[in-house]
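Lab notes, practical 5.
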Amino acid sequence: MFNNKFHHVSTETAIIPERQDIDDKYKWDLTAIYKTDDEWEKDFNWIIEQIPEYKKFEGNLAKNPQELLSCLKFNDDIGIKLERLYLYAMLAKDSDIRVNKYQSMDDRVKTLYSQIGAASSFIRPELLSIPEKKLIEMITSDEKLKIYKHNIEDLLRSKEHTLSNPEEKILALAGELTQTPYNIFSIFTNADLKLPFIEDEQGNVTELSHARFYSAMYSKDRAYRERTFKAYLGSYKSYINTFTTLFNGNLKTNIFNAQTRNYSSALEASLHKNNIPVSVYHNIIESANKNLQPMHRWAALKKKVLGVKEFFPYDVYVTLFSSQDEKKYSYEEGIEIVLSSLKIMGDDYINSLNTAFNDRWIDVFETKAKKSGAYSSGTTFGVHPYVLLNWTDLLNDVFTLAHEMGHNMHSYYTGKTQPYPYANYSIFLAEVASTFNESLLIDQLLDRAETKQEKLFLLERYLNNLTATFYRQIMFAEFEMIVYDRTEKGESLTSEVLNYLYKNIYQKYWGPEMIVPEEEQYTWARIPHFYYNFYVYQYATGFAASEMLAKKIKRQNETALNNYLNFLKSGSSDYSINILKKAGVDMNTPEPVNAVSERMTQVLDEIEGLL
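Output from the prediction step:
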């Protein structure tokens, strides 16, 4: 254990420390953003003073390249300072949400974003009003304007789906209304849905909650898992007509928006933003359906190890090979393991990681009123990215560290390499670097495993992550595709139809060993991601891409490593699908899915060899 002001002990007995009780080296250093709060206020006021300056550009963008360049550069300068303001306020707020000053600063920045959005709203429609040939000539006639060429081409790509100004205004005004189905779902599920009382593992009567349901699914007490499963999903059954109405309302809202903007489908409309071909979505579903055998084999193995005659959905998450004494990992040990697992990445990557660890880019321990969970802050131009952790000495913390440092290095290299207009990356690419790091970490931990039980525990952990991040998300994506397709064809999706569709697809993915009880068919009603409009497939594409890239690099392929490092540096300088292709992954082919299937088969072979 390391020496610091706060000695971390059991989470069940330790008093959560105040922030001042933690050694500074385990807290992020925000002076890299602003030395003082006063400097923050100075930049904030500068932006406020600049807002009226947008007016001088309005109506003049088509005059000449110099006027256009001045406007775009001005808007960039505002954006750079605005993002820096937001990063500082967010991190300060998340350090201790009791501090009203930083809550206020965070709120003020969000309001400022809205003001800038309103003041600069003329830029997009004005650019689109310029004849395409003229706009391209303007962009290519000036070296300083050429930097915006990809952004302009991307803007022109959306022209056919951009309506007249009055129509766009109507859709903008309706924007808040279109969020109604999800907002009601969220409020109802999290605040008003009454979950029952059940008997827990110790025989005590306890009230169910969403968190207690997830926790119960990992319990060794099978009767308790079954009770919880039936009671929890039974609550959704009780309100299934309400959930059906909300779900259909969300489908029809997204279909309305797609049709209004002249898209052929809601799927095309959703994928168009990042220029992802619809074929990518179809390909990952079709490829997964041809590679379901490892999932079916995993179900059969789980059933065998559990020693049960019938295998149910509430048996999916319980640990098969838990270590009798789960290892504890100090933060320093976590750093050492992560660095060791990533040494294949080369000196520059490792040195960059060490800089992050040594220069206080990371806020490590839980303190009172600190934001829970973990995140990487993303790219903020001119400032290194930050990572929030809440370290508890568990193996999961080591994986979280590897995961978030994957995001962190992606953001770091993007910000270091790309100019401001491209110093970010899409959600489609976001999970590649993080899951890539986890793939290398599991190999390192397996190499270090001292016992058969520990190795089995790690292999199972990997498979559980694979099934949850890859196959389960594709299953959701396929269900989503089917229900949109049926709605667009004018079919009525009653609760009975939705239940039938979900139950069938769940059975298909888990295979013949799985007994799907009545309660499982209501699971569709509790998934918030179904309100995110074709979002979940990106978890699967990211996982598949990272698995394929890791496989290539682990073969000591220097070209593959250089391609991956270039991927980390690419930001949004090209379309996401092209950036991945340059890295060595074509998401329009079955190959990435095959790579996941092959890895899963390999892990299953290892587990069976150890049993």
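Observations recorded by the TA: Residues 452-488 form the longest helix (37 residues). The longest strand covers residues 197-199.
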